[in-house]
Design brief:
It is a multi-pass membrane protein. It is found in: Cell inner membrane. The chain crosses the membrane at residues 174-194, 225-241, 379-399. This protein has 15 helices and three strands. A hairpin with a 5-residue loop joins strand 1 (9-16) and strand 2 (22-29). Helix 6 (132-144) runs antiparallel to helix 7 (147-204), helix 7 (147-204) runs antiparallel to helix 10 and helix 12 packs antiparallel against helix 13. Strands 2-1-3 form a three-stranded antiparallel beta sheet. It is mainly alpha-helical. 74% of the residues lie in helices and 6% in strands. The protein starts with 8 loop residues before the first strand and ends with a helix.
């Protein structure tokens, strides 16, 4: 008979120890009565016991992130390699978690395992954090009796993928930062600075240069319609996010379009190849058949162009094609990748070659992001200089003209 799962909560307590000294602390228990009983067993007479209140700004109330899952996996791998039993490992890792949501999830997993469930089955109840790839790899580790080694491999995989994602976010942040900073600076100048000069120009009673008239008109429009512009930007952002979330066709369109962006597109191409190679190497080394491993790689690659290509590769391999030929048929993978995978197939060292491909393209992404960062710094200065300089010139043109007339 399966043991009933117990959901633990964090309680704050205050009481007196055996020496009569006032002491306080926190503990995890199913309810207040259980918390009081635990304290008495420790020789503490409880006076106050209540649920811990969590501030929305507290780290403990924050959502679980992919990096938390990677860290959890690394901790579990280390514990199991050290000979700590699975249940005790889960207990230790859960108790040390700083996030309440993470702690609760890990205690739920521990309760499932203590009730007789496999570790992979317990993890699969939280598909948002442990996807099919993760659960299937854990299951393979359980069945082979090498769960510690498998968790170590998964941890490495998760750490590499998250590091790659961080580099991509960094690469995409710079162009967005240039646009946002440019818009903010221009808006401030148009709304706050230009009107001051406009009052001065009115007192001149002379015709303004065309460029100055254009800037003044733009300033008047900005002052009059700034709320509508902000509302329009917010509405566009909401509609974009909503459509992106609901429409697969729209997501596919964005995926294809973003690969064509100069500089950034090349980085995303390399990142997709790195994810493909890293995922395929991890699943294949775990003993997953190549066709199933390709399925996992298609789901993890993160772009529809490469996802469709990998599905095409899987179909080719399932009909008897070599992996090298199937990859070559897609027409989007670099020749170096194709040749290295071909050598790995022929030599029986496909896993090692896929690892080398992944490492090569991860380094390429890293170098490309650093280069983009170096390129964007002067570009930001050029954009801001052009905008600010253009507005300053527009404002001072009438003053220069007046100086010439007076002269």
């Amino acid at each position: 008979m399966a043991t009933k799962q117990v959901k633990l909560q964090t309680f704050v307590w205050q009481g007196r120890d055996k020496s009569g000294n006032v002491t306080k602390g926190k503990l995890d228990a199913a309810n207040v009565a259980t918390a009081r009983a635990q304290l008495r067993r420790q020789g503490i007479t409880p006076k106050k016991v209540g649920k811990e209140s969590i501030s929305i700004f507290s780290n403990r109330s924050k959502a679980i992130k992919p990096l938390d899952i990677a860290f959890f996996t690394r901790q579990m791998a280390t514990m199991l390699k050290s000979g700590v039993p699975l249940l005790q490992s889960l207990e230790i890792v859960a108790g040390g978690s700083e996030k309440d949501k993470m702690k609760k999830m890990l205690y739920d997993i521990r309760n499932d395992v203590s009730g007789g469930s496999d570790f992979s089955t317990a993890l699969s109840k939280f598909p948002i954090f442990f996807d099919d790839l993760y659960c299937n790899l854990v299951k393979a580790g359980e069945q082979s009796g090498a769960l510690d080694a498998m968790l170590d491999r998964i941890a490495t995989y998760k750490e590499k993928i998250e590091a790659l994602k961080a580099k991509i976010r960094k690469a995409m942040t710079y162009p967005i930062a240039v646009v946002v900073v440019g818009i903010i600076v221009t808006a401030i100048l148009l709304v706050k600075v230009v009107p001051v000069f406009e009052e001065l120009f009115t007192s001149f009673g002379a015709d303004l240069p065309a460029f100055t008239r254009f800037v003044v008109t733009l300033s008047e429009a900005a002052q009059k319609w700034w709320f509508v512009v902000l509302l329009g930007i917010a509405l566009f952002g909401y509609l974009f996010q909503s459509t992106h979330r609901k429409s697969q066709k729209f997501r596919d369109f964005i995926d294809r379009a973003i690969l064509k962006i100069p500089v950034l597109g090349k980085i995303l191409h390399k990142a997709a190849i790195a994810r493909f190679a890293r995922t395929l190497a991890t699943t294949f080394s775990a003993g997953v058949p190549l066709v199933e491993a390709l399925d996992s790689a298609a789901g993890a690659v993160g772009n529809v162009v490469y996802r469709n290509a990998i599905i095409q590769i899987r179909n080719g391999v399932s009909t008897g094609q070599s992996l090298k030929n199937a990859i070559e048929m897609t027409g989007i993978f670099p020749n170096m990748t194709i040749q290295m995978i071909g050598i790995g197939e022929e030599a029986g060292s496909l896993e090692m070659m896929l690892d080398k491909v992944a490492e090569f393209y991860e380094r390429e992404v890293d170098d490309a992001v650093d280069s983009l960062s170096s390129l964007m710094e002067p570009m930001i200065m050029v954009v801001l200089g052009t905008l600010v300089g253009g507005l300053v010139i527009a404002m001072y043109l009438p003053i220069f003209q007046l100086g010439n007339v007076v002269g």
